[in-house]
Description:
The structure holds 2 protein chains of 2 kinds. Chain A is mainly α. Chain A has 2 domains: 1-66, no CATH class; 106-163, no CATH class. Chain A is built from 7 helices and no strands. The longest helix of chain A has 25 residues, at 39-63. Chain B has one domain (5-138). The longest helix of chain B is centred in the last third of the chain and has 33 residues, at 103-135. Chain B is elongated and about 60 Å long. The model of chain B has no long low-confidence stretch (mean pLDDT 81).
Amino acid sequence: MLAVTAIALVRLHSLFAAAMLTGIYxxxxxxxxxxxxxxxxxxxxxxxxAGIITIMLxxxxxxxxxxxxxxxxxxxxxxPMAVVVITGAALIYATRDMPAFGDPYAPxxxxxxxxxIEKSGAEVGPPNIVTSVLASYRGYDTLGEVTxxxxxxxGVIMLLGxxxxxxx
Amino acid sequence: xxxxxxxxxxxxxxxxxxLLFGLYxxxxxxxxxxxxFQAGVIFAVGIILYALIHGLEKTRKSIPxxxxxxxxxxxxxxxxxxxLISMFLDGEFLNYSVLGKTPLAGQHLGIxxxxxxxxxxxxxxxxxxxxxFAGRRNK
Lengths: 168, 139
């Protein structure tokens, strides 16, 4: 379904429908995350991807006028197509070497994860290990992330935020 | 803005629920899924829904830009300040164990504070973004 939505998204001409499809795509992603037990990520994806991004896109569409649809026919372009296909094939080939989903002996689960799982209850406390890792063990990273969000907000205020003074 | 009574009534019912859910996710993040980022996002979505239904100007009156700007910085300062305080209490930067009587209590307090900081910053930034985009129309 994700693939179908993505293909439809690429082939659409109407920007409005494309914005809506982006929201649907995010919602599908969110359900995928729920299936993989990453509820936190699913929360964020549903709220940001499906909600806020769609609204922002619509807001932008309201600002710019819909461009006169370019009626150029879809022409198969060899080089971009080849690059995309080869990259996709390489990625799919690489997934064959990846450990199975949820494999406890995967390298990613051998490094610090066992310590988090075994000791975070005694060292940090909260029953939700994700919170302990994010807030306590990885406090620096999270501080960095918040700083990035803050900087982004300041940037937007500088560029767009000030309401124009009426030049009368 | 054209008013559709069904949409406006339903969203009036939903907005308080969304805001409440945001606060729940914020303060229950230690026990269930969620945390500052998610809570901030959900809270912002609630406000944005209200703004979509009742108009930007009305929302801007109840939550003025200045307060949002202050909140953006406040959240970040709360996070970094928690780290600094733990440094002054003979711990490392962002080591919350020294904040409470026992390490666990300290960790709990520290996490609560920084999650609150994250939530405030994220919500304020997102609402600001929405204001910035939606406000361009009325020039």
